[in-house]
Amino acid sequence: MDKFLDAIERIAPTLTNTIEQDEQNGRVSGSIITALRGAGLYNLFLPVSLGGFEADPLTAAKLTERVAHYNAAAAWSVMVMNISNWVCRFLPAEVVEEIYHPGETFCAGTFAAPVFAEKTKGGYLIKGQAPLCSNVHQAQWITLLSIVMQDGQPVMNNGMPELRAVFLKSGDCRILETWQALGMKATDSNDVVVENAFVPQNCSFILSPHSERNKHYKNALYRFPLTGIISCCLIVPAALAIATNAIEELKLLTGKMPSGSATMLKEKAGFQRKLGMAEAMVSSARAYLHQTLSDCWSKVQSGEEASTQDKANLLLSASHVNISCTNAVDLVYSASGTTGVYRRNNISRHFTDMQVVRQHGFANENRFETAAQLILGLQPDFFPAIL
Questions:
Q1: Best CA proximity match to 100, nearest among 192, 15, 37, 39
Q2: How much is the average pLDDT of 245-274?
Q3: Which domains does the chain have, with CATH numbers?
Q4: What is the per-residue pLDDT for 329?
C-alpha cells in the first residue's frame, strides 16, 4: 500500500499538468498513461503470475481515490484497466497469457449495451454498436457484452438470452467520437462499432459468477463479487475524491465577502451548515464503503462464498457513496455562490464531473432497488448473471 501511495505522490505533477488540455482532447495524455503504468496502478488486480500485484479490494479503493484526488479521469483509466484484469479470470490461461504478453497491454470495454454474437464455426461473428467504452483510443483489446444469436434468434439459457463477454482486438472495432459530455471529459468514453468481426470461442465466456477460473486466477481476490470489484473498488472512490476536492475548494472561499453583504462567507450560518453537512456526508460514506469492503473481503479470504446479503451490502454502499457525494457537491456548489459557476474555479469541474459519475449504471441510485431485490429474495433486474 505505502509503495503505491508514494508512487502516486511522485507522479502527482504529471497527473495534474495536462488536465485542461486532456479535457479539450477528450482523453488523458500519453504521459499520464505512462506514469500510471510505471507506478503499477494498471496491474492492481492482475495475478502475480502475470506480473501483477493482486491487491485486496480495500487497498484498490484507497489507491483509486488517491489517484482521483489529483485527476479523476486518470483514476477512471485505472478503473477500466483493473476491471479488465479481473474479468480475464474466465478466459483460458493461454488467451490471458497472449493478451498480457507484451507487458504494455491496455484493455478497455463496456457492458452498457450488448452487441450481437452470431454462432459460427470456431467462434462468433460480432456486430453492433456499444456506447461508453472508456479509454478506447489507448486500448489494444476491447471487451464487449453480447447476446448470442443463432439463425437470427437469441440462444436461450434457462429462459434468458445467453450473454457472453467477447474479447476483440481493437483493430476489429471502429471508434465513433460520441463523447461530448457534461463532465469527466477526458475519459474517452466513446462508442465502438463492430461489423462482423470474428472472435474465436476461447476469446469469450458466458457471463456468470460460476464460470470456471483459469490457473492464474485461483486466489481469494478472484472470488470477490464482481459488483463489488467494479462499483466499490473502482467507481465510487472517484466520487469520494471529487467530493473531497470540492469541499477543500470551498474552504478557500471562507474569506470571500458576498455581494451586497457586510459579513464574510465563513461567518454565515448557511455556509457553515452546508460545509458541515458536506463533510459529514463524505466522511460517513467513505467509512461505510471501507467497512463493507473489509467485511466481505474477510469472509471471502477465509474461504467462504459471498452471500446474497454480502452482494446487496456492496451495492448499497456503492450507491450510498455516489448519492452522498453528489449531495455533498451540490451543497458545495450552492454555498460557493456565483464563484462556482466560473470554469476558472475548480468547483465547477467537480460539480460537472460528479454529475457524470453519479449516473454510472453499476453505482447509481437505481442500485438501491437492485440491493433491495436481493434482500427480499426477488429476481434482480440488473445483470442477474453476474451479481
A1: 37
A2: 84
A3: 2-100 (1.10.540.10), 107-206 (2.40.110.10), 224-375 (1.20.140.10)
A4: 98
